[in-house]
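Homework help board

Subject: predicted structure for assignment chain

Our instructor gave us this sequence and asked us to write out the predicted structure in token form, then describe one feature. I got the tokens but I'm not sure how to describe them. Can anyone check?
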Amino acid sequence: MIKTIIKRNGNKEPFMPEKVNGWGEWAATNLPRVDWPTIVLNATSKLPEECSSEALQKMLIDECLAMRSWQYSRMAGRLYAIMQRKQSFGAMHPPSIAFVHHQLAEKGIISREFFYSYVKELDAINDMIDHNRDFDYAQYQHQQFRDKYCLQDRVEGIAYETPQLTYMRVAMALAMNEDQLNRLAFVKLYYDAFSQNKINLPTPYLVNAGTDNGGYISCCLYEADDDAKSLAAGDHIAYMMTVASAGIGSHIKTRSIGQPIRGGIISHQGKYPYYRALASAVTANLQNGRGGAATATYTVYDPEIKMIQALKNPMTPIARGNRMLDYCMAYNTFFIKKAAKGEKYHTFDYKKCPEIYKALYDADDTVFAQLYDKAVEERRYEEELDAREILLQALTEAVETGRHYLLNLTESNRHNPFKEQIRMTNLCAEITLPTDAFRDVRELYEEEDYSHIDGEIAMCAIAGLNVDNIEDDDDYQQCVWLALRAVDAAIHQTQFPFPQATHTATSRLSAGVGIVGLAHYLAKRGLDYQTGKQAIHDLAEKHYYYLLKASLTLGKEKGNAPWIHKTKWIDGWLPIDDYEALREKFAANGIHFELKQDWETLRKEIKENGGIRNSALVAHMPAESSSISSGTTNGLYPARNTFLLKTNGTKSLSYVVPDSEDLYYQSAWDIPSNDMIDCYALIQKFTDQAISADLWINVLGAERIEARKLLSDFFRMNSLGVKTRYYLNSRTSKQEESDARGCASGACSL
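My token output:
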């Protein structure tokens, strides 16, 4: 048992049991199922006779975490919050906003004075902050902030912020350019929504707000054409946008291996060298402690498809692999039909058959089919392949690596508000925006005349709604309005690496506001992913409808997106316009849904206003990282277990599903994939972009996953209009579950 305590200043004093009992009693306040005396007894009995006060606090926290329960995790959170304050500030209560920001400005970490007055505004802001909210967070929320989000000296291990100080910094940054009379009111609104875990913020907001690294954009998508200068421009975009904290989506459209260059003087090396260059570009710089990441989109008609599909497989020799990228296979309805019938199909070179690839991205594959047949008849194809075999290879790669994604080009171009083609997706397969290749790196830095530049980098600023913490419809409407306003501020405040990115981002104003905490939302209502489809449908409808109203309101206040004429909003497009096809397919399975919002009145208002503030509004991201800091469940996903060991890229976290002692959670492993696909389909119809749609396959006791099962899930997802599939998770043993995958990049993780 402990006899002597070593204080932080090095002084020694006799151990006082009543003091540590007081810690335990305070930390357990209002947590009815916490046995704090046992925690204290276990902790003190495991320490030597002489130990530091910090070692005692850590042992108390560890004993709480060992209980693997939500209540004990909250108790540990209170102890952790106090320990962090003492480590950072040497006191129980954090210093004032003015003191912290002056300190950070002196160190060159944030912009000096943050454009707020130290005398008046910072004092008022200091009165807004509620440091007691730290004591409502679970331990893993605090650790996530400490490891990833708080501004700190990572070399010396000194944190300058607590979660409340971080949230207030972000609120101040986003409200910075509001009207002087209303600025403090917006600081208060933002801070409350963030700190009460109603609005979910992506990593770039939390780590960059107020600093000289003004990168808020999570998702960057670019194309490169079949030209050396265009390919070089693509590599430059990937490198610089990784530095700016974005996750990268890449689509390299170049001729295939063995094709002639300069009349045959040179034989083309194919895409492999360019994928290697891309991997080097995104991993060369660290994003919050780890390298960046990218997903390369390729099409089923690429002659190099077999090579590309094997690049990430661990069985591929290192010299012929490229595991530093993820890969996404893009296809159209024409290919789906070929695979369904077990037929052969043909591949085509980008350079020799440009018309094939232009038609590939149409919302209707009629023209594509005609051009395809003509090219086959003229024998301009490269190879004949078995469609089902190619599909199964992609699905098998997804099983073996988890990270081989899918993109339905026909559906992505049919169900979206853009008039231009959608040709690719992003790192996490939820962003579907128009892109075009640049001809030269110099075009990226053109500052005045953009009329001669066809290239476009797609940028999406994202946010999430923690739907499990929103009180009612009025609260929901305010939260979506604030989230969309935050996205607007983020786009305009981002310091893009090149003028062209600023131009396209501020012209499109594309937003991706998703739903986070769906599993907790359902559990609170006694529902799951099989019994809660009506609730999921109504939530998705409400989510989009309120966002659309908010964008209309912002458009009236700030003006519509400058490129709104490039969208179908001006024609009165709504996501419900192709709703009937879904209704009929669900009705065939005995599922019936009705719309509950007044869409037609809203359609009329949008047409009268000439559109809305944003080109796109909704994308559902994984929220792997920020769901931890928000103390909720990942995005749209079901919980895999009530307890998981998660990683935040640097350390392991003891994650407990919220309220798990009181609520029933349906495990992801127990949900039939048909039901999970149905839920995604309902949400997709109220989503103008896409979903990072995961599936889970429980193969415990099975020798293999049946090909029939993989194909069945694929065809069902596509028949119901789900645009993308992200991770394919499989459980093959009963070993303790952990979640070490993250989102491949902290940049794209909300």
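Reply (TA_rk): Your tokens look well-formed. For the description, you could write something like this. The first strand starts at residue 4 and ends at 6. That's the kind of observation they're looking for.
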